[in-house]
Amino acid sequence: xxxxxxxxLLAWLLCLLLVACATPQRLLPQDALKPTxxxxxxxLSLVIHSTPETALSAGFLLRGSxxxxxxxxxxxxxxxxxxxxxxxxxxxxxEGDQQxxxxxxxxxxxxxxxxxxxxxxxxxxxxxxxxxxxxWQAELSGLQQxxxxxxxxxxxxxxxxxxxLD
Length: 166
What we know:
This protein has helices at 2-22, 105-113, 119-126, and strands spanning 39-49, 54-64, 69-74, 80-86, 91-95, 98-102, 136-139, 147-152, 158-165. It is α+β, with helices and mostly antiparallel strands and 166 residues long. The longest helix has 21 residues, at 2-22. The model is unreliable at 2-31 (pLDDT under 50).
């Protein structure tokens, strides 16, 4: 009897773990996004070549537009770790029960990651549009395979953002 109980409990825990991995939990945006807005999902890594070097890696879901959007970051188990929200009125960083407001999306990404990221242009790059941003270079050639690499060469420190779309 004890052996059956242990096997059943193990099977139940395994099923629970698989369900948690398969369905990322989404935080709802502060402002409702249009259902027709595009969305991208995958994994990203961000390396900031500073002293000490900073490296971040997470699953993500990006949706909306440069004007109003949301990005959720997920742990390997699929739970939401942190989220960014922006609109013309606000730029928010949601982390657990805490909410931090910023005057701009650029300032928000700088505080959240250590580097001001060109999130508005990221939407163009993911659509394959080669927009120019001073100090940044986007390698769009890998988009057919779901890969985008963006590098900041100026100002220092150098920043490398790699995205692998699902």
